[in-house]
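During the second half of the funding period, the structural biology subgroup turned its attention to how the target accommodates small molecules. The most pressing case was NAP, which had performed well in the primary screen but for which no bound structure existed. We therefore specified the complex as follows and requested a full 3D prediction, including the ligand pose.
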Amino acid sequence: MSKRSSFRQALIGGVAAGVTAAYVVRQRQYAAAATRFRFPAGKALITGASTGIGACYAERLASLGYDVVLVARREAMLATLATTIQQTYGVKADYIAADLSTAAGMDTVVQRIKTGQDISFLVNNAGFSTTIPFSELDASVVDDMAQLHVLATAKLTRAALPYMIAQHAGTVVNVSSVMGYMAEAYHSNYCATKAYLNSLSGALAKEVGALGVTVQALCPGLTETDFHTSAHYDAWDKAAYPAFMWQTTDQVVTYSLQHIREGRSGVCITGWLNTLLVQVVRHHTVGRPLMRLFETVMRWVTAQTAS
Ligand SMILES: NC(=O)c1ccc[n+]([C@@H]2O[C@H](COP(=O)([O-])OP(=O)(O)OC[C@H]3O[C@@H](n4cnc5c(N)ncnc54)[C@H](OP(=O)(O)O)[C@@H]3O)[C@@H](O)[C@H]2O)c1
């Protein structure tokens, strides 16, 4: 073996050992931070809390001792959940029925945050998607999605941060999606608005991290909720996606809270499969062929499951 090739091998081995050691040390630091961490008592405001991921956050945060303020449009569902939470966890549970895709709905919640000066955990979770070509989307739906995902998240976060910074403690979770890293046909507006959330959260995490505030963009993949049963999803075939790709709301929220316990901020992708997907699609040279291979395997798995 020539001197040059043995040097190259030693270099590769050294780098691999260094990366592995750094990974192990980092994991130990996360584990140690999680052991020390306690969620402080306070008040959590959760948007899109009537069902799905938002309702799960409401219950999990209440179980950690947070009083909760639930926000969504369906008042009866919010009232029922608030009662259940109060009875089960012994915390206070209020609710605000508001349509966050309207200026009036947004302002109601912004005013609640500003005047209360008590929100220490904000979850911007309300959202929806569509599955038809962008050119056929009703203009009002384009507007609603931008208002709900982009404007409402930005305005509620802007309203909540000064109190958190003054307390030197607080958490903002913006529920985004792995789609925020993708450019998927028929989900164009959804992908674009979720990309905004990833970018906003990453930058804010750097801005306010040293001030004691954690900002997270939670990026779930396919999650079992009512999300795919809305009228916007009529043309979508859930059965085309095999069971191993789906997560429960509880799994998704566990990833989010565990990252916070571990002292991590910025993007939190739920699970190794979703992380792999995101890494693949972000690398254009290898990403496209790998995605095509993945889609072929998916079609095969689906055909086997169906037969
Ligand atoms: N399920 C998935 O596969 C998946 C994957 C990645 C990311 N996500 C994200 O997770 C978040 C929660 O979705 P989910 O899966 O839990 O779906 P979901 O069960 O349909 O819940 C959506 C929530 O948003 C609320 N909402 C929708 N439009 C609203 C509006 N204009 N004003 C106020 N509230 C509104 C809904 O309540 P009302 O109808 O009562 O208003 C509901 O509580 C969304 O941001 C979604 O993009 C979901």
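Two results from this model are relevant to the next phase. Residues 40-306 form a domain with the Rossmann fold fold (CATH 3.40.50.720). The beta strands are 43-47, 67-72, 93-97, 119-124, 170-175, 213-219, 266-269.
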